[in-house]
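Lab notebook, bench 4. Continuing the backlog of folding jobs that were queued last week. Each job is logged with the same field layout so the records can be merged later without manual cleanup. Today's entry covers Autoinducer 2 ABC transporter substrate-binding protein, a 344-residue chain. Filled in by technician R.K.

JOB TYPE: sequence-to-structure
TARGET: Autoinducer 2 ABC transporter substrate-binding protein
LENGTH: 344
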Amino acid sequence: MKKIFGYLTSALLVGILLVGCVSQGGSTSGSGKEQQKSNNDKLKIAVVPKLIGIPYFNASEEGVMNAGKELDVDVIYTGPTEADAAQQVKVIEDLISQNVDVIAVAPNDAASLTPVLKKAKDQGIIVMDWDTPADQSLVELSVHQIDDEAYGRHIAKSLIENMGTEEGEIAIVTGGLSASNLNTWIDAAKKELEESYPGIKLVTDKIATDEKQQVAYQKTLDLVKSYPNLKGVMAFSTPAPLGVAQAIQEKGLQDKIAVVGTALPTDSAPYLEDGSLDVAILWEPDKLGYLTVALAKSLAEEKKPENGQNIEKVGEIEVWEDGKTVIMGPPTDFTKENAGDYDF
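JOB STATUS: finished
OUTPUT FIELD FOLLOWS
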């Protein structure tokens, strides 16, 4: 009996050791993210706007949430309450702690986000940007609404057309001074003016409004008081054109000062109607949100987008030779005549 008991004890010990080896091998063979996937097959995609609570990013959120439902992925749409880089860093830190699969961010200040995006990437999270470029050494895809150069030039041409003259004083009103996309559009617009319209004079440096309509309104009142011969204003960021138009409307300057800007059609309608805003030039932000999630899902599934690829609910996209830059499509001019055709 002692001998039989000894055999049984030895067999039991071997079994325990084997189980221990299998268990240990299982814990080290896959990452924590892979183990999480076994418990929840859905991808977790986080989309971070510059800020939440303004119409443009509300419309983007609608596209993001629709994509989450239709593409069967978990989406998180979260961002700061102000256009502040420090707040955005905190948001991304929280998303890293949630172990999301993809973070797509529209930076308020690209340089400020580089350390936290590097941290995300080092932890195996796919990093993308959308709406506004981030550090290109960190992102796997950079999702653009339009061709930035063509867009900025188009805005400048539209201003001149609505001014009805190729000579005179103009001003530029913007959102935040550090916003990469706004600065790129402004630079392209200025280039178009310098190359094609030498009679146009920019009266002051670009005027920052912190992505707030009320600030744009007040600064435009100051602007028209300081420059009584002003003939045109280009406004960049979706709240800025509304604030500029509000001031022009209040002062009854619709026939004297032309205003064009990057605004949503629904918000622009009251100003387009009376000419205080001549044209709003943008794209469909809900489609941009949808496209961002669709491309994030493809990346997580190790599929890269292709030039000319048709994305359902969006249309054909353009992919540049770098394989990283994605252009959603051309901009849309929203006017008094067509603004009512859109619901965003």
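OBSERVATION: The chain is about 50% helix and 15% strand.
SIGNED: R.K.
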